Amino acid sequence: MGKDTKGFFRRKWFLRIISLILALFLFMYVNGSKSGFLRQNTRNNNQSSALMSNKSVTLRMPLDVTIDNNKYIVSGYPQYVKVKVTGPSALVTTTSNTQNFKVYADLSDLTPGKHRVKLKTSELNSELTSKIEPQYINVNIQPRKTITMKVTIRLSTRDLDNGYKLGRPHSDIQTVQVTGSRDEVNKVNRIIAFVAIPHDAKDNIARQVTLQAIDRNGQTLNVVISPTTTNVSIPISAGSQSSSSSDSSSSSSEESEETKSSSRTSSRNDSSDSSSETSQSSSSISNEDSSSNSRNQ
Fold this sequence. Notes:
Layout: H1 2-9, H2 12-52, E1 54-66, E2 72-75, E3 80-88, H3 89-98, E4 102-106, E5 113-118, E6 120-122, E7 129-133, E8 136-155, E9 164-166, E10 170-171, E11 175-181, H4 182-186, E12 190-195, E13 205-210, E14 212-214, E15 224-226, E16 229-234, E17 236-238, H5 240-296
Parallel strand pairs: 1-4, 8-12
Antiparallel strand pairs: 1-3, 2-8, 3-7, 4-6, 5-8, 8-11, 9-17, 10-16, 11-15, 12-14, 13-16
């Protein structure tokens, strides 16, 4: 039995079948490895292509103005501008996330007055290109000026509906610094703290109020006030109307009592006078009768 088994495994057709199966397995293994390698290479190539392809993105960037802020005030320029950035996809994505560049207007060499200035970028990667919208801005450069002014409190009303009276308002800040362009600061007429008073207020009022700079026409001016707010307190007390009304009420009551009392007194006097007259009349009649009787006798 053992010899027959060994002879079976040594037959040519059996060895050929085994060789064929092994060859098929080897063929499938090699093809699978090549396909995987090709797929991996294709994926890597696609990723590299995606990273190296161009991309554009529009960013909203703050605008920096370069000037000596201790001497000049600049007005008329926008706070933000739009920048279209174009370049390799990876760099554009990084720049969009970090916004690690600046958009600025260089005014350092300009004199006071109105100017048209071109905007520029700095610290932007050299492989990226940018387009700023707008490309030019109009600015107004004016000498800087600072003055000191008193704070004026303005109340929305002086009269309350419930008879209460407003006292003298008090501000914890008496003077402020006003800074701005020379032309704008010269227009400042007053620094006001406006307080809205409820018509039915009965208790003392305390408010933190934002200060405003106004001109002679009551228009608000574009200047910087330091400090910007003040605490205002307004005492409220019972007005003279309520006390006078109670006094007049008591006075009317007293007058009414006096009137009633005088009426009663007058009535009593009239009654007394009437009875006196009656008594005198009766007495005279009695005397006349008695004299008449004596004559008859």
